[in-house]
Specification:
The complex is a heterodimer of chains A (388) and B (258).
Chain A (H helix, E strand, L loop, with lengths): L1 H15 L2 H20 L12 E7 L15 E6 L5 H10 L4 E5 L3 H7 L10 E5 L5 H20 L5 E2 L11 H39 L2 H5 L5 H34 L12 H28 L3 H20 L19 H11 L5 H26 L2 H4 L3
Parallel strand pairs in A: 1-2, 1-3, 4-5
Antiparallel strand pairs in A: 3-4
Helix pairs in contact in A: 1-8, 2-8, 6-8, 6-9, 6-10, 6-11, 8-9, 8-12, 9-10, 9-11, 9-12
Chain B lengths: L2 E13 L2 H7 L5 E13 L3 E5 L6 H8 L7 E6 L2 E2 L4 H7 E4 L11 H11 L4 H15 L14 H12 L6 E5 L7 H16 L3 E6 L2 H7 L2 E6 L2 E7 H5 L4 H13 L4
Parallel strand pairs in B: 3-8, 3-9, 6-7, 7-8
Antiparallel strand pairs in B: 1-2, 1-4, 4-5, 9-10
Classes of the chains: A alpha/beta (388), B alpha/beta (258).
């Protein structure tokens, strides 16, 4: 234990008392803050076979062709099947995706409307929920096609020109949606980048400089060396990732200017779960990159070997851009890294499942223990440690 | 005298990469670095290993210090086998080689404390030992300067001090005066003698005949991984200089005159 502490302290001293290294650890957060404050867009996508539930009031037969299109499969209901308030509530809940309310006899009203008159134009109201990707998609379709039609008939009607609240998304919905789209992916990238810098430097760098041999001839156990390094590198990586995370959170209000946004929807429990998932994830990254570094002869080589791992992380992260909730299958939470990202999705989308969380933590810790064992064996293998 | 180091039929081979095969001009995939080598070293003596480059001297020292494992045979350090009890061997050995580098970011003071901690040296003993060694080598003048900013001689002195943090029974030095200026080389040489007088066993590998003549009690001559001669310095030299004696053995081994 004392030796683990000695290695741990030495590694932390190495990273935290070097101004250049400290700068490199903090820098990503600062860059991210400025970059994401300036550039902010992300592309929502959905399943092409998805069926959109649309309610229509006073649906003019002349517009019925609008319901048929190749991009969006729709299921059209008349408002007469339900009452208006129930439909609006269902949009908020995500059960209904759109409600279009045409004025009674709108075709004739459009035909007789004089654009030079001071009278208000015939109204079309479209209610939607911007926190739902599906609702946003179908809203964009109908508002687009109606706007296009409106322009061909000299703007003889108005869309959502009234004072009603047409976007039915709650603040909670909006925040969860935005953060679920962005943060799990970005967190994974931040964690991995932070680990990549420090782990390759500490293990491949020590091999390259010949300083690890000095440790290997001392009486400390290889497992103590492995644990000491992994713990210190994980702490260092977490600081780096934490800096990036804080930079991102600080930039979000600027990035999402004009949108309803608050972090108050997350409970202290959610923050605790987030921290726990981040810690086990960074431990896994550290273990994987330590192994890669151990087999590398130099930092450059270790960085090259780390690229495929980076690609895996990117692909896993990208999968969350299209999701609105976490995976449901229990078994998927046994897969390291994939389970981490799904847990993050669950936390940010407010669909957190405690069983999935516990399975993720246990599965990832088991992977880390196995990794430490393998790494200790690698430290004891002269062909790996002293290869030329 | 007590036998501190015993090497029995040591054999070590290495895989050769394609690049190494090209460099060595061979098609063999394995190279025999040490081939059935045996030797003994006793308490309070300096044993010198002489041999050309690639003879197997450094490989032998690396096996003794537990950095690498033997394919066959064994090494016993104060009775502990490097195969069976490497941790015990590491507790009682000091190893100094150009292969072992110090992290340039740290100061001599920090590194001495760090390695003392790994060797579980009690605080009061560490303090006394550090004062003694730092004063002996003049490290106290640059104890708080980062290793990266030190000269080669200064670094070698710090490496030497760190190799002694655990007050080892046996000290293994690969080319102890290599790259040192004459003043530092003399400090190191004198220190080796003083360690021997304290009863430590010292194994050195070197190309420098004068160093062996000056400090070694016994000498082993390794050529092509085999121990060609191992005896007291006086018996190896006979009536000749050590250099002449070495080349006689070398030429006899190679079967040709240089």
């Amino acid at each position: 234990m004392k030796n683990i502490l000695a290695i741990f302290k030495k590694e932390l001293k190495r990273f935290f008392s070097d101004r250049r290294m400290l700068f490199m650890l903090i820098m990503p957060g600062i860059i991210i803050f400025f970059v994401y404050s300036l550039i902010g867009n992300f592309i929502p996508q959905t399943d092409p076979d998805f069926t959109y539930i649309v309610y229509v009031e006073n649906d003019p037969v002349e517009f019925s062709s609008f319901h048929t299109n190749e991009l969006y499969k729709t299921e059209i209901h008349s408002i007469s099947e339900s009452d208006r308030e129930t439909v609006l509530a269902a949009i908020k809940e995500g059960e209904v995706h759109l409600f279009i309310s045409y004025e009674n006899d709108i075709i004739n009203k459009i035909a007789s409307y004089d654009t030079s008159s001071a009278l208000p134009a015939p109204q079309i109201e479209i209610y939607y929920n911007s926190s739902s990707m599906e609702s946003s998609n179908i809203y964009a379709y109908y508002s687009g096609i109606l706007n296009a039609y409106e322009s061909t008939i000299s703007n003889k009607f108005d869309i959502n020109a009234g004072l009603a609240q047409y976007d039915l998304a709650t603040q909670e919905d909006m925040t969860a949606r935005v953060l679920t789209s962005m943060l799990p992916y970005m967190m994974m990238i931040f964690l991995f980048s932070g680990c990549m810098a420090v782990v390759t430097e500490s293990i491949a760098g020590e091999k390259e400089r010949g300083t690890i041999a000095s440790l290997l001839i001392t009486p400390i156990k290889r497992s103590e060396l492995a644990i000491g390094k992994i713990l210190a590198l994980s702490v260092t990586s977490l600081v780096s990732a934490g800096s990036s995370f804080i930079g991102l959170l600080a930039s979000l209000p600027q990035l999402l200017k004009g949108m309803n946004f608050t972090l108050d929807i997350y409970t202290p429990g959610a923050y605790f779960a987030l921290l726990a998932v981040l810690i086990v994830t960074v431990l896994i990254f550290t273990v994987l990159l330590s192994m890669v570094s151990a087999i590398s002869k130099s930092v450059k080589e270790a960085t090259s070997y780390g690229v495929p791992l980076m690609l895996i992380v990117v692909v896993l992260g990208l999968s969350t851009l299209m999701s609105t909730g976490s995976a449901k299958s229990f078994w998927l939470y046994l897969i390291p890294l994939y389970n981490s990202i799904q847990c993050l999705v669950g936390i940010f989308s407010l669909t957190f499942n405690p069983i999935h969380f516990v399975v993720t933590i246990i599965s990832n810790l088991a992977f880390v223990f196995g990794g430490v064992f393998v790494l200790a064996k690698m430290f004891n293998n002269e062909k790996i440690m002293f290869s030329r | 005298m007590k036998e501190i180091l015993k090497i029995e039929n040591l054999r070590k081979t290495f895989n050769l990469s394609i690049k190494q095969r090209k460099l060595e001009g061979t098609t063999e995939k394995r190279k025999i670095a040490v081939d059935g080598l045996s030797l003994s070293a006793y308490e309070g003596e300096i044993y010198g290993l002489l041999g050309p480059n690639g003879a197997g001297k450094t490989t032998t020292l690396r096996v003794i210090s537990t950095l690498i494992k033997a394919d066959e045979g064994d090494v016993f350090v104060d009775g502990f086998s490097v195969k069976e009890n490497p941790d015990e061997v590491r507790k009682i050995i000091g190893f100094l080689t150009s292969e072992l580098k110090m992290e340039g970011f740290f100061t001599p003071n920090y590194l001495f404390d760090f390695f003392s901690e790994l060797h579980k040296v009690p605080e009061n003993i560490k303090k006394t030992r550090k004062e003694l060694l730092f004063k002996k080598f003049g490290i106290d003048k640059f104890a708080e300067v980062k290793v990266a900013d030190l000269s080669t001689g200064m670094k070698q002195k710090v490496s030497l001090a760190i190799a002694l943090v655990n007050d080892p029974k046996i000290i293994v030095f690969d080319e102890p005066t290599s790259g040192l200026d004459v003043i530092t080389a003399k400090v190191v040489t004198d220190f080796l003698v003083s360690l021997k007088q304290e009863g430590r066993t010292i194994i050195i590998s070197t190309h420098i005949f004068s160093l062996v003549e000056k400090v070694c009690d016994r000498v082993g001559i390794i050529i092509d991984g085999k121990m060609k001669a191992s005896d007291t310095l006086k018996n190896i030299m006979g009536e000749k200089s050590l250099e002449d004696a070495f080349f006689d053995i070398y030429e006899a081994s190679e079967g040709k005159k240089l």
